Amino acid sequence: MAGYSGKHVVVVGAGCTGLGLARFFLDRGAVTTLSDSRKREDLDGVTELAQRGLRFDCGGHDARLLASADLIAISPGIPLTVPALAAARRAGVPVLGEIEIAARELTAPIIAVTGTNGKSTTTCLVGEIMKLWGRHAFVGGNLGIPLIEAARCTGWDCIVAEISSFQLEAIETFRPRYGMLLNLTADHLDRYPDMASYVAAKLRLFDNMTAEDVAIINADDALVTRHAEGMKCRTIAFTSCRVLEEGMGFDGEHIVWRHAGQQQLFPVSALRLTGLHNIENVMAAMIPPLLEGCPVETAWQAVCGFGGLDHRMVLVRELDGVTWYDDSKGTNVGSVVKSLAGLEGQVTLIAGGKDKGGDYAPLEELVKAKVDHLILIGQAADRMQDSFRGMTEILRADSLEQAVDMARRVTVAGGTVLLSPGCSSFDMFRSYAERGEVFCRAVQALHSQD
């Protein structure tokens, strides 16, 4: 579509991304309709857009409306299998995702970060390096600010974007200069019929990359390396298990960067981030800036100054010898595995929420070895209790606040309480962030027993 002026565009989904898309198309003179399953009065942030002429299709998706559109723009939370959407596609209506629409407007090189875990931290680390280097960098995508907002501005030196599998489902020409695949473990199996479908969605990141582009891959992940073999673009690897002849490696004390016959050593003791998974995130994040010519001193200074993101293994407090961690962003089993593996001593784990259809088996050995008490909340509690029955003491709580009270009673001095749900938050909360905030407030409200 050469231009949007006068075209009828239907934006499906009225969340943050959908509202950004609506603003984008209104700016460009499109006749824009916002379609959402909720009622009009339940939509937030639409008053100003309505005053600008935004139309509404609320309470469901009108199949005739979608079939008559010149373009349908979908938010990442909307699956392509929605009946009205699928019918419109069969009728020949173009259906594009937000990152495809945004990327067609952007001229700056894109550094795209995907994977099951670590995306947000790695994206922010790349952004911190670029900014300290003096580059005007947009940092967002699936993290925070939608990519379409970058397309509403000019003057970017680079785009650093976290990209989800949902966003990749509706691309056509999206092509990053750097595509990063951090890891692949089971996730979102409530949306995808099987693991292969989820992996296929992730791998679409590399569909349009060429020999001029670079794929950054985790050499420790067998599934990642297997799929990297057929890529058309250049590949460069990182690993926390050894030192590579070319790429990012780890010798147990230093990150070792070897490229074009040169070697640099970076002592991990200087990092504020902790855990082997964060060393991997740092390694991956440094590769694009270094390949672009960023001085090694600048890149290392930036990552050493980064203290982490909210709700990702954040120390909430220590009280009466018990340490409390907020890992509300641990929304899948692989993430919980990494968080538990990084803790010493016995753990009271608070888990549960909206089940995502994954297998809890990868957690079994860690639960047996480290978890003294498992406190379950939310819709997934029954299934999780069945999965871990006989491995540890299991308790049930009706609310997160009640779970905190239970954890306080059963956790002895020297132990750790970890909120790492392994599930999404949407059964009880609006987001993982709200869940983490409720947890932190409940923990901070506890009084010392001394």
Q: State which percent range the strand residues make up.
A: 15-25%
Strand order of the largest sheet: 7-8-6-9-10-11
Mean pLDDT: 95
> How many DSSP helices?
17
Shape: globular
Write the CATH architecture name of the largest domain. Answer: 3-Layer(aba) Sandwich
Q: Decide which structural class fits the backbone.
A: alpha/beta
Helical content stands at 25-40%
Descriptive report:
With 450 residues, the chain is of the alpha/beta class. It has 3 domains: 8-93, 3-Layer(aba) Sandwich (Rossmann fold), CATH 3.40.50; 100-304, 3-Layer(aba) Sandwich (UDP-N-acetylmuramoyl-L-alanine:D-glutamate ligase); 314-444, Mur ligase, C-terminal domain (Protein-Tyrosine Phosphatase, Chain A, Alpha-Beta Complex), CATH 3.90.190.20. It is 33% helix and 22% strand. The protein contains 17 helices and 20 strands. A 6-stranded parallel sheet has the order 7-8-6-9-10-11, with helices on both faces. A 6-stranded mixed sheet has the order 15-16-20-17-18-19, sandwiched between helices. α6 (119-132) packs across α11 (276-291). The mean pLDDT is 95.
List keywords for this structure.
450 residues, alpha/beta, Protein-Tyrosine Phosphatase, Chain A, 6-stranded parallel β-sheet, 6-stranded mixed β-sheet, 33% helix
